[in-house]
Amino acid sequence: MSPARIPERLRVWIDARKRHRLSHAHVQMARELGMNPKKLGKLDDHEQEPWKLPLPAFIEDLYFRRFGKRRPDVVVSVEERARMEEGKKALKREMKHRRAADDAQG
Predict the structure, then answer these.
(1) Which domain holds residue 23?
(2) Is the whole model's pTM more than 0.70, yes or no?
(3) Degrees (nearest 5) of the Cα angle 1, 75, 40?
């Protein structure tokens, strides 16, 4: 996997962030809450239905109710998370190859 490649399960969050004008923190909060990025449009209908909160405020409210704090302690963008996961996979592959080489020698 090349460094620019982002898995589909994370790419949908990038699309949702752009479509609904969410910040990195809002996307992370929504992910931690277990929200479905494809269903955010239903929740972000505050212009036609004025009783609904705007999506960022709704996510913040749910996050506060669930976790008791306004924002996550450390905010990591989806792209940064993909890079971290790729680095973790590369490290695991390297360790696996080293173990295989050690077993072949000894």
Answers:
(1) 8-105
(2) yes
(3) 80
Which residue from 43, 32, 40, 44 is spatially nearest to 12, judged by alpha carbons? 40
Amino acid letter, residue 15? D
The first and second tokens of residue 104, run together, are 């072949």
Quote the longest CA-to-CA distance of the chain.
70
pLDDT tens string 33-77: 999 999 999 998 878 888 999 999 999 999 999 999 999 999 999
Specify if 3 maps to a domain: no
pLDDT top residue among 46 and 82: 82
> Helices 55-67 and 24-33, interaxial angle, to 10°?
50
Question: How many domains are contained in the chain?
Answer: 1
* Residue in this structure with the two tokens 């360790």, named with its chain if needed: 95
Phi, psi of 36 (to 5 degrees): -95, 120
